[in-house]
Amino acid sequence: MTAVLVIEDDDRIRLALLLALEEEGYTARGAATAEEGLRMQRSDPADNVLFDLMLPGIDGFEGIRQLRRDDDVPIVVVSARDDTHDIVAALEAGADDYVVKPIAIKELSARLRALRRRARAVVAPVAVQVVGDLEISPDAGEVRRGGHPVPLTRTEFRLLCELAEHAGRVLSRQQLLQRVWGYDSGDERLVDVHVGRLRQKIEAEPGNPRHLVTLRGLGYKLQR
C-alpha cells in the first residue's frame, strides 16, 4: 500500500487530508512542522510527501530543499498560495508538482499515482544518444557534457531523455506533461520551470541556449 506523508500545520486541513487519502486507499500520516516531517521521512520513508509552504520554523521551501538533498521521493506542494513566483520557487526548490487549495482529492490522488508510476518506471536499454556535446545514456541514467558528468534530478533526466528521443522535433508543453509527468492535463509552468533548470545544467550559456531551444507558441526542441 502506498504511504503518503502530509506536512501541514493546520490541524483541520491535515486531518481532512489524512482521512481523504486513506479513503483513496493510501496509508497516510502527518506532521505539523517541516522539522517533524523531515525526521519522520528519514526514519520511516513514505512513497510520496505532501508539503505545505506556510509552516512554523522552517518553511516549506527550505524543508523541500533539505529533503531533496538526500531523498528523491516525489514531492507535491499543497498550498493556498497561487502566485507564480511561489510556484516557481517551490519547483526550483525540488518539488515535482504544485496543487492549489482547496484540493480536489480525486485530482490529487491521480497525480500521486502518476508520480509513483514515473518513479517506478524502468528505462528500457537504449544506446548512448549524442546531441552536440551532450552524451545521454538512458539505461545508465547518466549525462555528460563535453565529457564531464552532469548531475540531474530524476525529472530533469526523464525530460532530457524524452527530448533526446525526439531530437529535432518540437514537443508541446502538454505533450511533455503527458510523457514525462504522466498527466493528461496540468499546469504548464511545471514544464517551463524544469526546462529552465535543465538549461542551467546542460547549456554553456543558458541565456543563449545552443541545445534546448524554445519555439514560441509551440513548445521545446532539442537541437541535433
Automatic annotation (TrEMBL):
One of the GO biological process terms: regulation of DNA-templated transcription
UniProt xrefs under Gene3D superfamilies: 3.40.50.2300, 6.10.250.690, Winged helix-like DNA-binding domain superfamily/Winged helix DNA-binding domain
DNA-binding residues: 126-224
Domain of life from the UniProt record: Bacteria
Domain Response regulatory: 3-116
Domain OmpR/PhoB-type: residue ranges: 126-224
A GO cellular component entry from the record: cytosol
Assigned keywords, A-Z: DNA-binding, Phosphoprotein, Transcription, Transcription regulation, Two-component regulatory system
Residues passing through the membrane, by range: none
Single GO molecular function: transcription cis-regulatory region binding
4-aspartylphosphate found at: D52
Database matches in InterPro entries: CheY-like_superfamily, OmpR/PhoB-type_DNA-bd, Sig_transdc_resp-reg_C-effctor, Sig_transdc_resp-reg_receiver, WalR-like, WH-like_DNA-bd_sf
The keyword Cell cycle is assigned to this record: no
Keyword Ribonucleoprotein in annotation: no
Any Pfam family the entry gives: Trans_reg_C
Protein known as: DNA-binding response OmpR family regulator
High-level lineage: Bacteria, Bacillati, Actinomycetota, Actinomycetes, Micromonosporales
Gene: regX_2
